[in-house]
Amino acid sequence: MRTGIGYDIHRLVPGRMLILGGVKIDYHLGFLAHSDGDVVIHAIIDSLLGACCLGDIGEFFPDTDPAYKDSDSGKLLIQVINLISEKGFTIEHVDVIIHAERPKLSGHKLMIREKLAQLMKIGLDRINLKAKTNEGLDAVGEGHAIAAWVVATVAKN
Ligand code: MG
User: Fold this and answer.
1) Which of 22, 29, 45, 136 is most buried by a 10 A CB count?
2) What is the pLDDT of residue 100?
3) Domains and CATH numbers, the chain
4) What's the CA-to-centroid distance between 103 and ligand 1, angstroms?
5) Other CB atoms closer than 10 Å to residue 4's CB: what's the count?
6) What is the pTM of this model?
7) How much is the average pLDDT of 106-127?
């Protein structure tokens, strides 16, 4: 068994879509990012790469590469899942925290878990999601950004 941690944060701006865990959330702000800015998937990718000792997301998908401009992060996650499974790893469990002051995410949590389970080809009982505010503190608490933390556990066959 091996464990990895992942973290990501992106700024919220007008005129962009808000996509969390591959699910489009109806909101008047979205992520300023080279890709679609999906902090949940970016943090999941880093946690999986960490658990498998394979580096970080920037080494695989550089934010200077035009190929990843506005890219669907779900497709990047599928590439990482394929890579780690080729190397003999299987996902035991993924635990996600989203830090968002707004919008309220309680009504979206199940849909995000279902989408992540589908992308990672794992059961719903292996993906947990917690949504928290930042109690009005710092940039996340003031609604200028959304962040995510992830801990992933994998097994090596
Ligand atoms: Mg990112």
Assistant:
1) 45
2) 98
3) 2-156 (3.30.1330.50)
4) 19
5) 21
6) 0.97
7) 98
